[in-house]
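ZP: hey, is the (R)-mevalonate complex queued? I don't see it on the tracker
AM: it wasn't, my bad. submitting now with these inputs:
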Amino acid sequence: MGKGYGYGKTILFGEHFVVYGLPALASALGAKTTAIIDRIPQKGYELIDNRPEVPGYKKNKYEEQQISIKNVLKFMGVDTEKQGLRITLGGDLICASGVGASAASCVAIARAITDEFKLNWNDARINEAAYEGEKGYHGSPSGIDNTASTFGGLVYFVKNMKGGPNTMDTTKLKNAVELVIGSSGITSDTKEVVDAVKKLKDKDPKWFDGIIGEYSKLVAKGRQALEKFDLPLVGKLMDKNHTLLQEITVSNEVLDSMVVISRKAGALGAKVTGTGRGGNMIALTPGVKLRDKVASALQAAGYEVWKTIIGS
Ligand code: MEV
């Protein structure tokens, strides 16, 4: 039996902009997906998916998940026509758009395979295998999700647009910080939303360049603020990042409403995280007291929330 895990992730700055080679900052979450690989006598693979989910998530992603698993197996040189496998997924990461659920499962499976077949793959190679898996969910992922999911901690990531190695600096925050994740309950399709943003960009490149210019300044300040542990500034910049995400149409009414409720309840900042047009938002809420207050305000408005931490 081989075992593996992958962290959930949240993007603090830069979803969508990262696709165009701009820097982004992501953090692993406290929650993980786990995978167990068992050899079975039949050919092919059998999947038992016990991960907790937002209703409909697993059904929605099933076809993509099959492509993803095949990509990982192929990349790792495992032929299930020769050796059948059972893949069992579990863990405490609640599957939803925006928390890196797909990346976490790819990383967990890759780690379980290297464990079962004694491949001795290090994290860098596990990350490469998970990236192949991510392609099953989204034709050309930036790679930020699998990177955060593999290495944990805080990740500063820049996609290499020429196809060479990506920039990825991993670090830790001075202290772990409490975070509230609010769920829209809607499962979004990353490929669809990324394609929609690209269409807007192609239609009006000048307008998009202006937004990119603003985002570049914002992310540079965001990195410094995180390094200095200046959380009020991090929060303000998250708010600004949300405005830019609204402009590129990846927020929606539900996400905007959760962002407003969080800010009113005292969150230092709040924004869409990940794909958007559904999925999740995050609120920066240092201290258990503030986290509980913001979580309660969202719950009182009928939203599902998770309380977690970043930067540990
Ligand atoms: C999805 O978590 C993040 C996106 O930027 C897509 C990607 O980076 O591949 C929307």
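AM: back. The first strand starts at residue 2 and ends at 13.
ZP: great, adding it to the tracker
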